[in-house]
Amino acid sequence: MSRGRFESATESAVRALGPSRAKDLAGLLARRQGRERALSELATPTVREPIERLYDAMEAEQVPFGEAAAYIRGYSAAARRARDTVQVRTVWSGPATPAVPVRATAQVLAEVISEAQHELLAMTYAARPYPALTEALRLAVRRSVTVDIVVETLAGAGGLLSGHEPGAAFAGMPGVRLWHWVREAGDGPASRQHAKLAVADRRLLFLGSANLTESAARRNIEAGVLVRGGSAPRRAAEHIVELRRQGVLRPWGR
User: Fold this and answer.
1) What residues contact 209, with CB distance under 8 A and at least 6 apart?
2) φ/ψ (deg, to 5) at 37
3) Which of 33, 5, 28 lies closest to 17 in space, CA to CA?
4) How far is CA 115 from CA 61, 107, 108, 143, 198, in A?
5) Dist CA 207 CA 194 (whole Å)
6) CA 162 to each of CA 102, 126, 253: distance values in angstroms, whole numbers, following the listed order
């Protein structure tokens, strides 16, 4: 018997929930818990609709609770394997060569931001507003993604940056939290927050030379790597979170 609707709904639910919470959903289904219980325990604005579609498909195609739980566990195991499989790609901006196709940094940044469903962490030295990045961040916030961006400050740059504060590129965006590095006496007067990266859901990491500016993303020669899966995205995110917890990174403007 074809169960295309149910299988599609199962895949969407696991993708939205992630492997850990998908396992919780499988447990609820194994105990024959209905949609209201699942929604009350698991639903956030981004996963409510996939859970609703799953239960609708179960009813439409008469899928027993136990069988649905087994499907969820199978898809979840596949998602974990895919997450742990490491893929590394180089990313270049600027002039192309016949032997090496160039993917624009702007395109890769948009890809990382658009794939975030729960958490997006970014760090940049310089920042300037440009529409493609701004729109991608707004859509992420609309998906209920937690967005945190670490920026350098004019004072921290020690005169090497000019114009508006880098954080001003994002300061007017609802839902985007900004952070900066508060130097201690032992850090030295020449220290800079020079990291440039973006991490989506601790599974996709873009690390490179490009700042969050239009010139870096579109016009300069910039190089970086896009890492999907493995421990590198998770460890990068954990390091940023720990720097915040220790007070090394503090809310921008404080």
Assistant:
1) 196, 216, 222, 223, 224
2) -65, -45
3) 28
4) 30, 12, 11, 11, 11
5) 12
6) 30, 10, 17
Architecture of domain 87-251: 2-Layer Sandwich (3.30)
> What residues have CB less than 8 Å from 127, skipping those under 6 apart?
149, 151, 166, 167, 168, 169, 170, 211, 212, 213
Q: Which residue is it, tokens 């967005």?
A: 147
Helix or strand run (H / E) with residue 152? none
Where do the H-state alpha helices sit in the chain?
4-30, 35-42, 48-60, 65-84, 105-115, 131-142, 154-157, 214, 232-245
Domain parsing of the chain, residue ranges: 4-84, 87-251
**pLDDT (tens place) for every residue of the chain, 254 residues total:** 567 889 989 988 888 888 778 889 999 999 999 999 999 988 777 788 899 999 999 999 999 999 999 999 998 888 777 767 788 988 888 887 777 666 678 788 888 999 998 999 999 999 988 888 899 999 999 999 999 999 999 988 888 888 889 999 998 899 999 999 988 766 777 889 899 999 999 999 999 999 988 888 778 899 999 999 888 999 999 999 999 999 999 998 76
